[in-house]
Amino acid sequence: MTHQTTSECITTIGIDLGKTTFHLIGMDARGRIVLRRKIARGQLQSCLANLPVCLIGMEACAGAHHVGRQLAALGHDVRLLPAQYVKPFPKGHKNDYRDAEATAEAVQRPTMRPVPLKSAEQLDLQALHRVRRRRIGQRTAVINQIRAFLLECGLPVRQGLAGLREALPTLLSQRTDVLSPRMIHLIEDLAEDWRQLDERLETLTWDITALARQDAGCRRLMGIPGVGVITASAMVAVGTGAAFAKGRDFAAWLGLVPEQISIGDRTILGGLSKRGTATCAPCSWAARRPFCSTGTTGKDTASEAG
User: What is the dihedral sign for C-alpha 212, 218, 220, 226?
Assistant: First the structure.
């Protein structure tokens, strides 16, 4: 079979993405492998530009949306699959070619729900949210450390940011009987870190607000009672909603459904937890208790998918 004939019979391509090199597996309509190739990142577009329009599957990972937009511009049907949907398909020992073959197998399944391709604007908005979330985590860590140091000195402070912010100047200036000069200096440094993080968070929030006010989808979502700038912009960063047939599908994708451990006629519903958390499956009451008997937590700890 000539190279031209091989290219013409390719209907599905699975790509295993890498930092510098990609591994391609091409299949014909009968599922036979007719292409097996390793190429550099810069050669991907020129390689696939000469192929007829086909179905291309990739795992939704870092850089996948950029590559997906490039291949979609060539006319190909590009679908990004969550990694957990591809995991059941690898055969035998793991290598890059078998990962690409597994992706090609998975993308052909009609029940697979792909991750919508994100535009550059959506990725910018998503990046702002991720940096903002990291800043909030850093601020929480600083505040908790300040509280812990004060508590070690016998100075408990009521819960909440406002309570600590209001009480801290008084404690540092008047409770020198229990706070050593070194501890006061250390807490003052932490308070300065807190102030800087507040300023950075405010800047990020203003950037998100400015982008949300310019986006028609965000403005439409903010017309819903209870939906503000952060929620609306986060939803727009996820996608347009075209991947979901109804609102309940979107809620299930977010994880707003109880964990189900059912077998036969027994329907067992667990706690409300995002998919991928450490909620203990046998313990349906895990989400109602801080810790179950196996030591796993019922709190939501997973990051957003896709």
Answer: negative
